[in-house]
Amino acid sequence: MDEQAAPRRGRPGYDQATVLRRAIELFNQKGYDGTSIGDLASELGLSKSAIYHHVPSKEHLLQQALDEALGALTEALDRIEAASGLTATERLRTAVRTSVVVLVEHLPAVTLLLRVHGNSAAEQDALARRRALDDRLAAMVRAAAADGELRDDIAPDLLSRLLFGMVNSLVEWVRPGHDESAEHLADALAALAFEGLLR
Q1: What is the pLDDT of residues 96-131, one digit of tens each?
Q2: 79-86 contacts, C-beta under 8 A, 24 or more apart
Q3: What is the C-alpha separation between 63 and 43, in angstroms, rounded?
Q4: N or C of the chain: less Cβ packing under 10 Å?
Q5: Among candidates 84, 25, 24, which has minimal Cα distance to 60?
Q6: What is the pLDDT of residue 9?
Q7: Contacts of 154 (CB under 8 A, 6+ apart)
């Protein structure tokens, strides 16, 4: 009776996108500082030395994740600012909606971005880039307020913090596969922000 030889098991192969996705998951679960390159190797079924065939360092993965989140947000704002024929309030409303869509579509990377503390060069760079984005969004709020299209009993900078704080809070409860689509969440948040709760 012939016995078939057991299939050979080689080193699992992963593309860069898969490695990055798994790293972001671990960073969000355990914290970036609490995640070792060994943890990632174990998650992927690789030896600690083999992981370096896939990535040069843990910080490299962090940089890629933060670039994903910041790049998507930056591109979205660039498109909005380049659009013609929008009032300041329409531009702001589009920025709010688009920020929600980007957050949902890049949820793990944006979640990681919102949790960094500046403990590494990659984190410090990300925080500086995030402040620049916050400044652009605040400028949109100020422009809408200057046009007389927003209520004037709340300072524009406070409005900006409240508005985009509401957007950022989505990372606390939205999960991949959530029942609500990104577009529906964006519409709901924009309606709440610009029309309020009352009928």
Answers
A1: 999 999 999 999 999 999 999 999 999 999 999 999
A2: 81/136
A3: 20
A4: N
A5: 24
A6: 42
A7: 162
Which amino acid is it at 96? V
CA angle centred on 6, ends 5 and 8, rounded to 5° = 110
Q: Are 83 and 76 in contact (CB under 8 A)?
A: no
C-alpha to C-alpha distance for 127 and 130, rounded to whole angstroms: 5
- Domains of the chain listed by start with CATH number: 11-56 (1.10.10.60), 58-195 (1.10.357.10)
**Core vs surface per residue 56-88: b (16+ CB within 10 A) or e:** eebeebbbbbbbbbbebbbebbeebeeeeeeeb
Of the candidates 64, 193, 65, 66, which has an alpha carbon nearest to the alpha carbon of residue 130?
66
The dihedral region occupied by 58, where left means phi > 0, alpha psi between -120 and 50, and beta the remainder, is: alpha
Q: Which of 189, 188, 186, 190 is nearest to 104 (CA)?
A: 186
pLDDT band at 13 (very low <50, low <70, confident <90, very high): low
Other CB atoms closer than 10 Å to residue 130's CB: what's the count?
17
d(CA 190, CA 177): 21
